[in-house]
């Protein structure tokens, strides 16, 4: 089935991660022989890291005293950093998708921690941590697996707790007040125009203090999972071991693009427009339904749409793939007759409009 060329998007990639990299930023990467292949402890690379840290502080309007900490390994590694370096005894987790569940599993498996408190929702619904005797509360701002978005806010009833927010697919694409959490952590391969392999954490003074307190009480912390080492290195604008300099350059370019065009509001306005186009279309279509039924918790960066049983997702995906439209598969473990569209900051809303036109053309013929 050949979709007319005039209907096709300029860029047919709508993945939920890794996501699109802005073409101008990618093109510029090939001109940076001045810094590629340079020691990560040399001034040019430390200046690059400092610039990225400064731009994250500006993009998220981080309060005074908050620090941008970074390390190697991605957000998955940061779960282990948190287990070793931020949880004192017990954590509480809101689980409403695969990634929140994985962090809770890491905390549950640590032999030096107590069994975590877990409040789990059905797929497509939201669950925040329950009030309990804990020292860390954690949940994701956006679940890439289900397309559910959660508020970032402090919850009454907890005392002396640290708030950890997994923002991997939300950071740079969903509005946030980072003062409402203590650790806003993410890897950069979604809205932030980078590749995997790095984690960033915007940390409150309480989080910095907690890491130092925990380090004093742990018998042993692996160097790569030691938050204090990451903090100390980040203050020097470097990482414990060599980072991907190309990745840092990509992130720098994306942040410059965002800030030059209006910052977080510019980026989140784009994602809100793109996702709303899809939700409005699905609400009206006979064969498509938004998977997340409550509009208040629908993600503006990960749109999950159920298909009528008359349309098989695999058949639709194959046709779209043959026409250059890719990475719209549902999350593997949900097992639903579903498509999932990434509407991250680098995705132009005009491409989403074109995608909808292509869906209409194909569905009519299926």
UniProtKB/TrEMBL annotation:
- Could you say which EC number(s) this protein's record lists? 2.6.1.52
**What's noted on cofactor binding?**
Binds 1 pyridoxal phosphate per subunit.
InterPro entries linked: Aminotrans_V_dom (IPR000192), Pser_aminoTfrase (IPR022278), Pser_aminoTfrase_mycobac (IPR006272), PyrdxlP-dep_Trfase (IPR015424), PyrdxlP-dep_Trfase_major (IPR015421), PyrdxlP-dep_Trfase_small (IPR015422)
> Which Gene Ontology CC terms are recorded?
cytoplasm
Set out the biological process GO terms recorded for this chain's protein: glycine biosynthetic process, by transamination of glyoxylate; L-serine biosynthetic process; pyridoxine biosynthetic process
- Keywords associated with the record: Amino-acid biosynthesis, Aminotransferase, Cytoplasm, Pyridoxal phosphate, Pyridoxine biosynthesis, Serine biosynthesis, Transferase
Which residues in this protein are found as N6-(pyridoxal phosphate)lysine? 190
HAMAP family tied to this protein: SerC_aminotrans_5
The record's note on quaternary structure and interaction partners says: Homodimer.
Name the job this protein performs: Catalyzes the reversible conversion of 3-phosphohydroxypyruvate to phosphoserine and of 3-hydroxy-2-oxo-4-phosphonooxybutanoate to phosphohydroxythreonine.
Protein name from the UniProt record: Phosphoserine aminotransferase
> What is the gene called?
serC
């Amino acid at each position: 089935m050949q979709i007319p060329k005039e209907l096709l998007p300029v860029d047919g990639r709508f993945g939920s991660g890794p996501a699109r990299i802005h073409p101008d930023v990618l093109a510029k990467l090939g001109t940076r022989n001045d810094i590629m292949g340079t020691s990560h402890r040399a001034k040019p690379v430390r200046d690059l890291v400092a610039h990225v840290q400064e731009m994250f502080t500006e993009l998220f309007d981080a309060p005074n005293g908050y620090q941008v900490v970074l390390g190697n390994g991605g957000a998955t590694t940061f779960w282990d950093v948190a287990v070793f370096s931020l949880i004192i005894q017990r954590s509480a987790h809101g689980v409403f998708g695969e990634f929140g569940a994985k962090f809770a599993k890491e905390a549950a498996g640590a032999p030096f921690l107590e069994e975590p408190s877990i409040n789990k929702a059905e797929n497509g619904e939201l669950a925040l941590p329950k009030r309990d005797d804990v020292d860390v509360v954690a949940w994701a701002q956006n679940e890439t697996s289900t397309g559910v978005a959660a508020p970032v806010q402090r919850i009454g009833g907890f005392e002396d707790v640290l708030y950890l927010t997994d923002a991997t697919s939300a950071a740079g694409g969903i509005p946030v007040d980072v003062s409402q959490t203590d650790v806003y952590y993410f890897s950069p391969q979604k809205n932030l125009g980078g590749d995997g392999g790095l984690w960033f954490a915007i940390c409150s003074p309480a989080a910095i203090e907690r890491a130092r307190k925990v380090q004093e009480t742990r018998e042993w912390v692996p160097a790569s999972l030691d938050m204090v080492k990451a903090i100390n290195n980040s203050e020097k604008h470097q990482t414990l071991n060599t980072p991907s300099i190309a990745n840092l350059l990509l992130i720098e370019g994306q942040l410059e693009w965002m800030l030059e065009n209006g910052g977080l509001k510019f980026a989140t306005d784009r994602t809100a427009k793109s996702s709303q186009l899809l939700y409005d279309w699905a609400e009206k279509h006979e064969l498509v339904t938004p998977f997340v039924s409550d509009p208040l918790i629908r993600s503006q960066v990960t749109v999950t749409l159920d298909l009528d049983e008359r349309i098989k997702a695999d058949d639709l995906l194959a046709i779209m793939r043959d026409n250059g439209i890719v990475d719209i598969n549902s999350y593997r473990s949900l097992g639903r007759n579903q498509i999932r569209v990434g509407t991250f900051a680098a995705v132009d809303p005009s491409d989403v409009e074109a995608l909808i036109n292509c869906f209409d053309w194909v569905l009519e013929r299926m």
